[in-house]
Amino acid sequence: MFLYRRTPEMPTREQALKGRPEPEFTVPDRHTVLGTPLLGPYPEGLEVADFGLGCFWGAERKFWQTPGVWTTLVGYQGGYTPNPSYEEVCSGLTGHTEVVRVVHDPNEVSYETLLKVFWEAHDPTQGYRQGNDVGTQYRSAVYTHSPAQAATARASRDAYQRVLTSSGYGTITTELLPADDRPFYPAEPYHQQYLDKNPAGYCGIGGTGVSCPVGVAPAEG
């Protein structure tokens, strides 16, 4: 059905699957845990953050359990194929990684705190994999929505690199890029809040056990 590479590598834009102009499904209206709408426009004052940290089932749960998070949804980002399917993303021929979109109230939870959740919930030094999950779709990524987010993410990455290095880990491979020209495509309905619907379902999320320092990044503004 699809080409699964033995050694994961990113496709070029020319190699990527063509995709489709519109999604083939409708995203559910409400979050099954938080009861909030999944898709925007979101209430005034809320901010959006996008994180890729391996299989998005367990990753999404980490964020919906974080106080101050208003809603979460999973999807695909950072690739070329418009409106990809899960099977296409898993083929390695779209360039996307699995991402959690986190909509939060910055008065209740800072972007820096969300980054701490992100870093500590996975191993950002593994390249195109997370544990036994191998492929470009499992790469670590932060897609930022403002210069302030970008500056905070860079400072947080550099601070975490220092403590990872002192603990014997290698170089962080996290993709840190602006979200502006990297559209977020929501995943199929069955992926949304998957571990709420399937409490015994697979969760590949596992961190390094190294705590990420907070308070080293520049203040948001």
Written account of the structure:
Mean pLDDT is 94; it is low at 1-5 and 216-221. β6 (141-144), α4 and β7 (175-178) form a beta-alpha-beta unit. By secondary structure, the protein is α+β, with helices and mostly antiparallel strands. It has five helices and eight strands. InterPro entries: Met_Sox_Rdtase_MsrA_dom, Met_Sox_Rdtase_MsrA_sf, MsrA_MetSO_reductase.
User: What is the approximate shape?
Assistant: globular
What Rg do the Cα atoms give? 16 Å
Strand count: 8
Number of helices: 5
> What is the structural class?
alpha+beta
- Residues in helix, %: 10-25%
Described by strand count, sense and barrel closure, the largest sheet is: 6 strands, mixed
Average residue-wise pLDDT? 94
* Uncertain residue ranges: 1-5, 216-221
Q: DSSP strand (E) fraction? A: 15-25%
Give me the side-by-side strand order of the main sheet. 7-6-1-3-2-8
Order of helices and strands: EHEHEHEEEHEEH
Distance between the termini: 48 Å
InterPro entries: Met_Sox_Rdtase_MsrA_dom, Met_Sox_Rdtase_MsrA_sf, MsrA_MetSO_reductase
Function: Has an important function as a repair enzyme for proteins that have been inactivated by oxidation. Catalyzes the reversible oxidation-reduction of methionine sulfoxide in proteins to methionine.
GO molecular function: peptide-methionine (S)-S-oxide reductase activity
Organism: Streptomyces tamarix
